[in-house]
Write a structure and sequence with these properties.
The chain is an alpha/beta fold. Helices cover 34% and strands 25% of the residues. It has 9 helices and 13 strands. The protein has an 8-stranded mixed beta sheet with strand order 1-4-3-2-5-6-13-12, with helices on both faces. A 3-stranded antiparallel beta sheet has the order 7-8-11. Helix 4 links the parallel strand 2 and strand 3. The radius of gyration is 19 Å and the shape is globular. Bound molecules: S-adenosylmethionine. S-adenosylmethionine binds next to helix 2.
């Protein structure tokens, strides 16, 4: 990933939860993942990949962010879906097929659509396996007619699905503009890996955040209540637990800004004083003002994203935007000419 920051590490294992109530097994490649994490912290331009935001508390904090007035993506996407659902489902129907929710979080977005989409199977995929298992358990009680399973996996390099995922028509649902956490090149590679799981009759439903003035973008990632700051700082608690580092949260402050060059929001943690961080077998110092890059969130354009889909072997079957042109929802299907 460009600029090191937000560099996406991979844990190419797929660990199915044992049904909606299951919990993930410890990843076999966890040690390698921790080694990569520590190498990123030790690097001259320190970075922690954004997947480390999502421990149980991180997932809850993200859910709180979506309720903030400044965080327009969730609200705008929900309104878009409400307004255009008949046209979206006509472009790629889900009824009777499998809905695969990528980065499902609390599964709330997909669940709101169940009555309209009527999938036979629902597969929720997320790195935050414990949080996912709890959400799925509750959801299964509400929708006993849908077969549900959770897949606890890290799809940051490529998507792998276990054989338990039905092979019939699959619709991949990737809302919330999480695709923006990938560099454009890595996003194309990820979309191409989704394409390989789609078969010839599958589809991708994907939410994409669009470029807009920084006066709208920056408050969405730096809210006055400090929820996004807590979400960002919580990454250090997760890393302390996972890698044995001794980050003290009070030593760090949340920084978020829009860089119009690459067209992305960057989030960082900045040392408020000189800091020494230690971990088993290592450590490093940070000067006051030195930063750890924790997230990129790329903002796209309609033609630019269409082209990315095309490069991934997908054809845009339709796209919809809100009246302000802040957010887009795309439906893409396999491109026969790819
Ligand atoms: C920005 S949240 C979106 C949640 C929800 N889909 C929504 O739109 O509100 C990103 C979700 O993707 C999950 N996630 C982040 N990185 C991931 C990775 N590398 N592999 C699998 N899931 C990941 C997180 O746990 C989180 O639930």
């Amino acid at each position: 990933m460009a600029n090191g920051a937000g560099a996406i590490c991979s844990r190419p294992v797929t660990e199915p939860l044992s049904g909606p109530t299951g919990t993930a097994n410890p990843p076999t490649s966890a040690a390698r993942d921790i080694a990569r994490l520590l190498a990123g912290i030790a690097a001259p331009t320190a970075a922690i990949p954004p997947k480390w935001f999502y421990d149980d508390l991180g997932s809850r904090l993200f859910a709180a962010i979506t309720a903030l007035p400044e965080y327009y993506p969730t609200r705008t996407e929900a309104e878009l879906l409400r307004a255009h659902l008949p046209a979206i489902t006509a472009a790629a129907p889900v009824v009777g097929g499998t809905l695969v929710d990528l980065g499902a979080g609390d599964c709330g977005k997909a669940a709101a659509l169940f009555p309209h989409l009527q999938p036979r199977d629902y597969v929720a995929v997320d790195i935050s396996a414990e949080f996912l298992a709890g959400c799925l358990q509750r959801l299964q009680r509400l929708h006993p007619q849908i077969a549900m399973q959770g897949v606890g996996t890290d799809f940051s390099e490529r998507l792998e699905l276990p054989p338990s995922v039905p092979t019939g028509r699959r619709t991949f649902f990737y809302p919330g503009s999480s695709i923006g956490n990938f560099t454009p090149a890595d996003a194309v590679a990820f979309l191409a890996s989704v394409r390989t799981h789609m078969g010839d009759d599958g589809a991708l439903w994907i939410g994409v955040d669009l470029q807009k003035p920084r006066t709208v973008l920056e408050p969405a990632y730096d809210d006055p209540l400090g929820v996004t700051a807590a979400f960002n700082k919580n990454v250090l608690t997760h890393v302390n637990r996972a890698a044995g580092t001794d980050f003290a949260l009070a030593d760090w402050r949340h920084v978020a800004f829009y860089d119009s060059g690459p067209g992305r929001i960057e989030m960082h943690l900045e040392a408020v004083r000189e800091v020494r961080v230690r971990w088993p077998g290592g450590g490093r110092s940070f000067a006051r003002g030195e930063r750890i890059h924790t997230e990129n969130s790329y903002k796209h354009t309609i033609p630019g994203f269409r082209e990315m889909l095309q490069r991934a072997g997908l054809r845009t079957a339709g796209h919809w935007t809100d009246p302000k042109g802040w957010f887009a929802f795309f439906v893409a299907t396999p491109d026969g000419t790819a």
